[in-house]
Write a structure and sequence with these properties.
With 185 residues, the protein is α+β, with helices and mostly antiparallel strands. The chain has one domain: VC0467-like (3-Layer(aba) Sandwich). 19% of the residues lie in helices and 32% in strands. Strands 1, 2, 3, 4, 5, 6, 7, 8, 9 and 10 form a ten-stranded mixed β-sheet that branches. A hairpin with a 2-residue loop joins strand 7 and strand 8. The N and C termini lie far apart (42 Å).
Length: 185
């Protein structure tokens, strides 16, 4: 499917019942005949980079939140960044890269680059994501739709899914008005 290019956002439809992806926004990092891989942008964890990497002098004090990237490989830390490295990371779209080692992360931090960290990732086998699209599980925002790019760097990603769903379908426009804390309504 031509819409499934790296840099696309997968926005789960409100009818999604899979607990791994219900109410989620996934950045597609790679897609080919063997499958697809991405990271869930809107599932923050109660953990920071500094807490996770407290033994690393350059990163120990960092307050960057870590997101739940998806249900696969939860023992691995992944990074999304705009650091201009060609050798150690995978290009997703102009100004957006995925992956790298701790040296890259340290260099990116020193350069003032934007970074997002994730434990785990979202993965689909051959044809699996295409089947989910045909079943209506996802809406796709291709990278050419520039208004969604700020969503990639949104931290915390409060109401990210609601904003995107409301923008994609007028029937869900009311979702833009939901308070972050329903008790404060």
């Amino acid at each position: 499917m031509e819409l499934l290019t790296p840099g696309s956002l997968l926005v789960s439809n409100p009818e999604m019942v899979d607990p791994n992806f219900e109410g989620s926004v996934v950045l597609l990092c790679s897609h080919d005949e063997g499958g697809a891989m991405g990271v869930t942008l809107n599932r923050p964890m109660d953990l920071t980079v500094g807490e996770l990497l407290r033994e690393d002098a350059a990163l120990a004090g960092r307050e960057d939140p870590i997101g739940w990237g998806g249900p696969v490989g939860l023992e691995t830390l992944h990074v999304l960044h705009d650091y201009a490295d060609e050798a150690l990371s995978m290009p997703i779209a102009d100004g957006l890269r995925f992956g790298g080692d701790l040296e890259l992360v340290r260099a990116a931090v020193a350069s003032g680059s934007r970074l997002r960290f994730f434990l785990g990732y979202s993965g689909w086998g051959e044809g699996q994501l295409e089947s989910e699209l045909l079943a209506g599980a996802w809406r796709v925002l291709p990278p050419s739709e520039a208004p969604h790019w700020p969503e990639i760097w949104a931290s915390p990603p409060t109401r990210q899914w609601e904003r995107l769903v409301a923008g994609l379908d007028r029937r869900y426009g009311w979702m833009r008005e939901l308070p972050d804390d329903p008790q404060a309504n």
